[in-house]
Design brief:
The structure is a single chain. With about 350 residues, this protein is of the alpha/beta class. It folds into two domains: about 190 residues, Rossmann fold (3-Layer(aba) Sandwich); about 140 residues, Nucleoside Triphosphate Pyrophosphohydrolase. Helices cover about 40% and strands about 20% of the residues. The protein has 13 helices and 14 strands. The strands form three sheets. Strands 1, 2, 3, 4, 5 and 6 form a six-stranded mixed sheet that branches. Strands 9-7-11-10-13-14 form a six-stranded mixed sheet, sandwiched between helices. A hairpin with a 2-residue loop joins β13 and β14. The longest helix is centred in the first third of the chain and has 18 residues. The radius of gyration is 23 Å and the shape is elongated. It starts with a strand and ends with a strand.
């Protein structure tokens, strides 16, 4: 199990995590900042200059998941992770990756009042650091308060919130320990299928509104938007898998099997295995059907109808290419075979 202690800079995450490690048996600390420090050494300066924060590096987010999973496999027990996550899509990606490995996450947010937070930042010092470095660190913490306030909406809904403004470090750790023991801590409900160990077959279904805009969904467990659909289960027909996924994800029961638009062979690209990706035409929804769309489970955050141009800003490049050719196939009334998103004559 992972206990992820979130909160803005200066909230007391690291000191609380150290204290908590003494309260939870068979626990260990993992600070993802060490991954950021390593990437600053390992990556070329040109790449580092392209981002303002190491959390923006996909390699950091991937390594956090891989390292946490490796430590739990090595040690077992509880892994305590003190780390600020203010961008919901990064939380989704990291927690989704952990869920894919069947690692339960307890999400805790330390949320002192702003006046107390600012007072803590004002007196914060790093042992042995020069005064100029302390000033930069304090300014960094002050600069992130607006982003933290903006994120509080989803953070408070997602995590077990502890106002530790007037609590000692020990008292804060004891509250987290009690919440973990009683399962009151914020249980991450992001659902993710296990990571594949070989190529997979996945079916997506394109649904359209009366303006021929296509419906996309925003998964909680990975970055970028997607088509309704998912991995085809063993012994399942691909078209029926698409129908099943549409019902599970959107609460929509399709009255017929959808027609194939494209079959795309996605080559392996480490760490992914690739496989066959199929897109089907689920037809045009009426206004009444669109009004009844629901997100029954925790896998999806949002859905929306978009134009082909709008989809380009939401979909990863390879998915947008697949969509582009699927729309051409729909116009022509003829299914296409693709390899890596390109038609094969």
């Amino acid at each position: 199990m992972i206990v992820w202690i979130n909160g803005t800079f200066g909230a007391g995450k690291t000191s609380t995590a150290r204290e908590l490690a003494g309260l939870l048996p068979d626990s260990a600390l993992f600070d993802p900042e060490f991954i950021g420090d390593a990437l600053r050494v390992l990556l070329p300066r040109k790449r580092l200059a392209e981002v303002s924060d190491y959390q923006d590096l996909p390699s950091w987010r991937r390594l956090v998941v891989d390292t946490a999973a490796a430590m739990l496999a090595e040690l077992g027990g509880v892994l305590i992770v003190p780390m600020t996550l203010l961008r919901q899509e990064y939380r989704d990606e990291i927690f989704g990756g952990l869920a894919a490995r069947r690692i339960p996450v307890r999400h805790v947010l330390l949320a002192p009042e702003e006046t107390i937070l600012r007072a803590r930042i004002a007196t914060r010092e790093e042992p042995g650091a020069p005064e100029q470095a302390d000033l930069r660190l304090r300014q960094w913490a002050y600069d992130h308060i607006p982003a933290y306030q903006q994120a509080l909406g989803w953070l408070a809904a997602d995590a077990h919130v502890i106002d530790n403004g007037r609590l000692s470090v020990r008292e804060t750790a004891e509250r987290i320990a009690e919440a973990v023991r009683t399962d009151d801590a914020g249980i991450c409900d992001i659902v993710q299928t296990p990571e594949p160990t070989r190529e997979t077959v996945a079916s997506g279904v394109l649904l359209f509104d009366d303006r021929d805009r296509v419906l996309l969904v925003d998964p909680t467990y990975k970055p970028g938007w997607e088509f309704p659909g998912g991995v085809v289960e063993a012994g399942e027909a691909p078209a029926r898998a698409g129908v099943r996924e549409v019902e599970e994800e959107l609460g929509l029961v399709l009255g017929r099997l959808p027609a194939l638009l494209v079959m795309d062979w996605e080559p392996p690209a480490r760490p992914a295995y690739g496989g066959l990706r199929l897109l089907f035409d689920g037809g045009r929804l009426t206004e009444a059907q669109a009004a009844e769309l629901r997100l029954p489970g925790p896998e999806l955050r949002e859905w929306r109808f978009v134009t082909e141009e709008e989809a380009a800003a939401l979909l990863p490049v390879h998915r947008h290419e697949r969509l582009r050719w699927a729309l051409r196939a729909r116009e022509r009334g003829c299914a296409l075979y693709l390899e890596a998103g390109r038609p094969v004559p």
